[in-house]
Fold this protein.
Amino acid sequence: MSLAVRELGQVSYRDALALQDELVAARRRGECADTLLLLEHPPVVTLGRSAHGEHLLVAEDVLAARGVELFEVARGGDVTYHAPGQLVGYPIVDLAARDARDVHAWLRTLEELIGEALVALGVPWRRVPGWTGVFVDLPEGARPRKIASIGVGVRGWVTLHGFALNVDLDLAGFDAIVPCGLRAVEMTSIARELGDRARADLAARARAAVRRAFLARLG
């Protein structure tokens, strides 16, 4: 089954929402292929359907003063943060056409695809039972380090929203929230995990690795 991949650079969160709406409607009408949008956002905090107010640690006016937008959105999950240096992926995929009407299975598929990309980049990964997202594989007993967050929506079995993979962003931005409502988790990035092994072309390599994983699995 065909899958289009569009690399869009930096896109405002509002514009990305509008584009997803357009593509979901087109996909439901059968007017376009399944499509993966790869992009970055300016600094923004988003609140999903399961968000708790106490997980936003600063007031909205403080966020605004820092140049951070705030959106409430119809995706699963709690609160998360986007900023340049983070690779955001929005798959617009018709699950019904793939005979895959199972949102939980779709979440696991996204975790696996991101995990495959991370392995290609030299970062071992794991799941944490009971939590959605992708974590760095660490010794038993270590504090979990989350490297990718996932929150999706579905309309007529066509998916929207998706994942945010931390490539090389300023992790201090996460201090304004309790990421995904998980207080025991530390946020990390590919650059942090690779350390001296990170390369100047890391962002391009991450995009390519994610693209390859999606095309191999869904294309």
Summary: Residues 103-121 form the longest helix (19 residues).
